[in-house]
Amino acid sequence: MYPSRRSDREQWIKDARYNLFNLKSHQVFIDLLTDSGTGAMSQEQWSAMMSGDESYAGSQSFERLKETITSLTGFPHVLPTHQGRAAENVLFSVMVSEGDVVPGNAHFDTTKGHIEFRKASAFDCTIDAANDTSLYHPFKGNVDIGKMENLFQVYGKERIPMIIVTITCNSTGGQPVSMENLKAVRSFADSYGVPVIFDSARFAENAYFIKIREKGYENHSIREIVKEMFSMADGMTMSSKKDGIVNMGGFIALNSKSLYREATTYNIMFEGYITYGGMSGRDMAALAQGLEEATTFEYLESRIKQVHYLGERLMESGIPVQEPFGGHAIFVDAGKFLPHVPREEYIGQTLALEIYLESGVRAVEIGTLLADRDPETRENRYPRLEMVRLTIPRRVYTRNHMDYVAAALQNIYQRREEITTGYRIRYEAPIMRHFTVELERIS
Ligand code: F0G
Fold first, then answer.
1. From the CA of 227, how far away is ligand 1's center (Å)?
2. How far does the centroid of ligand 1 lie from the alpha carbon of residue 39, in Å?
3. Looking at the whole model, is its pTM more than 0.90?
4. Based on the domain organization, do 257 and 389 belong to the same domain?
5. What whole-number distance in Å separates Cα of residue 195 and Cα of residue 313?
6. What percent of the chain is predicted at pLDDT more than 90?
7. Is 1 domain-assigned?
8. CA 385 to CA 79: how far, in whole Å?
9. What is the pLDDT of residues 11-40, one digit of tens each?
10. CA distance 64 to 288
11. What is the pLDDT of residue 432?
12. Do 98 and 207 belong to one domain?
């Protein structure tokens, strides 16, 4: 985490095969790769760690975590897991079978990965407004009920084991889902008798947006909104690395005892015993505290306003970004930013690499590399948007860092006409390729 020279960065990124995940952290000045596990824990969380109970079964740290989750969400059954994708792995082991179809709003890549790994398909039913970055819509994470209805007509409810709603919707820009939409999904799901699962990594940020953008919720507390949101679901998977403000952790929480019982078997096989599931007692203690902090209005307001400050600095210079700004990141519309780079040459990745070379700031591509290949045709899946995500860790950076990031993007924007070529793939994994892909520059 030091400032560096451009000539050093040229060498480092070449050695990293033009994959930003391959950089060493000391080669990065400001790390906006992710907000996952990168937040700063509070003194209360650190002191909670000191009282962690490391009993194998029935630890007090688990009890406190369970009580916190149940009181926040209303779900009585809780299974800890080591992170969000582990929660997906355990729950989908019970719920998803070969040939199934799982509708949702732009599933996160591990969610889609765990569905496709089981030879099932994830269908994106996000509203079309999400694909127009300059169109204002307060809830671009919303699910299009009409698109879902179509899927049910085509595949039949027997092949649809659940509906997954991601709150906030990471893939479209940290965009929230409105309470009205959550209610509509609930009643739609009820009409077919299908369960609704929330992918809840950034549920508190979603609640903040409902409070400030949705009529009728102005005077509700964040906790009231959170409770109402989860009353629309049958269960949740959670990556605690986001709105739990811990470095590692996850969980599943459910209404159904029988589903919980089925999931316990997989939890024990993959994660650990049902009262720790891959987390140490001290980590569960810190998570319980983190969930309390993340659901206060004051915390959410300072966090989200910092993200929006960066967005405003970029917009002032005409840089195209997803509007309105989301909760955890600013998504730059790379397709509009670099109109001369062909999409076959990975526009989003090209911009993310330019940002690193310019400034030492590490962002992440949310575009064709991430979208991967179609599992059947093996053709590139070109998403409707090529984006670069500037993801802000919780409680880590200052306004001064945001100004530096904005200046870096402004510099590139001024010379964007000169950037006309991108990269080609030299190596890629068969699934979730963007983590390990190796690229070379097209000159
Ligand atoms: N769901 C969402 C919406 C996520 O954003 C993530 C992770 C997961 C599930 C998986 O959780 O990482 O704890 O296993 N998102 C990170 C990111 C990696 O950078 O957006 P995990």
1. 22
2. 14
3. yes
4. no
5. 42
6. 95
7. no
8. 36
9. 999 999 999 999 999 999 999 999 999 999
10. 7
11. 84
12. yes
The answer on pLDDT for 1 being more than 80 is no
The verdict on 83 and 149 lying in the same domain is yes
Chain center to CA of 166? 8
Give pLDDT, residue 2.
Answer: 79
Domain count across the chain: 2
Quote the strand ranges of 155-290, DSSP E.
163-166, 196-199, 235-239, 250-254
| Atom 15 of ligand 1: nearest residue by CA position | 36
HSE, side-chain direction, 13 A CA sphere, residue 102: 31
Q: Kindly state whether residues 151 and 107 are assigned to the same domain.
A: yes
- Is there a single domain that holds both residue 157 and residue 270? yes
Domain interval for residue 424: 6-31+297-441
pLDDT tens-digit series, residues 112-131: 999 999 999 999 999 999 99
Residue 435's φ and ψ, nearest 5 degrees, are -65, -35
Give pLDDT tens digits for 212-230: 999 999 999 999 999 999 9
Ligand 1 atom index nearest CA of 250: 13
pLDDT tens readout for residues 307-349: 999 999 999 999 999 999 999 999 999 999 999 999 999 999 9
**Boundary of a domain, candidates 250, 269, 294:** 294
How far, in Å, is the centroid of ligand 1 from the Cα of 239? 6
Token couple for 13: 């990124």
* Residues with C-beta less than 6 Å from any ligand 1 atom: 34, 36, 83-85, 108, 110-111, 166, 170, 199, 201, 239, 241, 250
More confident residue, 26 or 375: 26
User: CATH number of the domain that 365 lies in?
Assistant: 3.90.1150.10
Helix, strand, coil % over all residues of the chain, rounded to 5: 45, 15, 40
Are 277 and 392 part of one and the same domain? no
pLDDT tier at 179, thresholds 50, 70, 90: very high
Q: Is residue 37 part of a domain?
A: no
Instruction: Return the C-alpha torsion angle 438, 410, 36, 96, nearest 10.
Output: -60
Rounded to whole angstroms, the Cα distance separating 27 from 21 reads 11
Which of 247, 265, 294 is the C-terminal boundary of a domain?
294
Asked if 285 and 61 touch (Cβ cutoff 8 Å), the reply is yes
Query: What integer pLDDT is reported at residue 171 of this predicted model?
Result: 87
